[in-house]
Amino acid sequence: MAQVESRNRATSSEESRREVARRIQDEGVAFVLLWFTDLEGHLKSFAITPAELEDALDDGMGFDGSSITGFNAIEESDMVAIPDPGTFQLMPHREGETKVARMICDIVTPDGKPYEGDPRYVLRRALERMRGLGFETFNVGPELEYFLFRDDKGTEPLDEGGYFAMTTLDAASELRQETVAALESMGIPIEYVHHEVGPSQHEIDMRYAPALDMADYTVTYRLIVKEIAKKAGFHATFMPKPIFGENGSGMHTHQSLFADGRNAFFDTDDEWHLSDAGKAFIAGQLRHAREIAAVFAQWVNSYKRLVPGYEAPVYVAWSRRNRSALIRIPLYKPGSEQATRAEIRCPDPACNPYLTFAALLHAGLEGIERGYELPPPMETNLYHLTAEQRRERGLRARPEGARAAHLRPLRRAQAQGVGRVPRPADGVGDGSVPLGALGAGEPLVPPRAPSFRAAVRVPVVREPAVSAS
Q1: Does residue 176 have an active-site annotation?
Q2: Is 0.85 surpassed by the pTM of this model?
Q3: Which of 199, 291, 382, 423 could form a disulfide with 157 if both were Cys (CB 3.0 to 4.6 A apart)?
């Protein structure tokens, strides 16, 4: 562990730090895990004993940032992880097992300043921009899908069940129930639990929450799902498209902005029950979809999922009930203020949730700030449109797939021996997949976003990414 000069760098109130110390003593906690994520969203963790807790909360714990993907170079490697007392939770455990707790950390530099490459700080900055525009809360509700396989050596499914299967075909009902119990024990509220469309594909939906809390929940969710599966002798994966010819795993994300306790997306007099702010927010995400695709769909495998025919969005469009559109407005409760929201369907569950929620928020706020106009909704199945019909509607797709510029980073990675350019058979790159808005098409509205790119300021990955979670 790197050593840094001692000083008071606490980022929390003294009262909250005392409360955590009391809980650790009362619960008999033996170890405290301190978590943060690298740029790609992989969870990083180290443990401390209760004896080190006070120093960790007051001053942080030093570590080598040059060994973390996307963090600092070796000549400026000293970093400090400061636990957030508000994230304190006991890890799931059985009677008689050692009690372990966890807290999620904010990363700062040795002088105590927030580290701009910390994904959690990137999201905090997006939320500051939101508050500067008069909004109070960015609520998000991601739906993470995942597959369960027999082991980690292949893709043998546990069952052949389908969507909402409730038969012996669903072999993982008890496993899902155990997972839900573990998540709820860590303070994560759950709404829906069910089998998904693909064989051995599952979904456990968390109840919506403010974006920073939800990003913390999401990294916890992924770990708990994997740990519960591993204890049962199975392998859980959030890889976007692990099985060719089957539905991939998405992370459909429901979003809404609140101000003064009211849903800022809702307008009872509008034909779609969308306010001007809600329309502009959606328009911002549509206009900037190509730019932020590198964040919410960051793996080569992500683009094997984003192909027609598997309920994954391919073209830039919005709709109310149409699941082939990039963004839809769910109509489960028409005219309900609390239920009015925008669901963006292109993120996948192997993304970094802090950066994804930040990019989605920045894109939406850009639409509000600049007054982007929302085009008419597309209520037809976009997969069934001919090329001429797509052109008439402003939905463009290039049959040759990704342009050469999009493949340059992959070619550099291939030259370095850490990856390869996708072949046509991979369904991305030089093949005939109509990636459309997510990589090859022209924008519905010409992009104009220098301030958007500057606002997001996502750090550059120093090493090429080669695999998905």
Answers
A1: no
A2: no
A3: 199
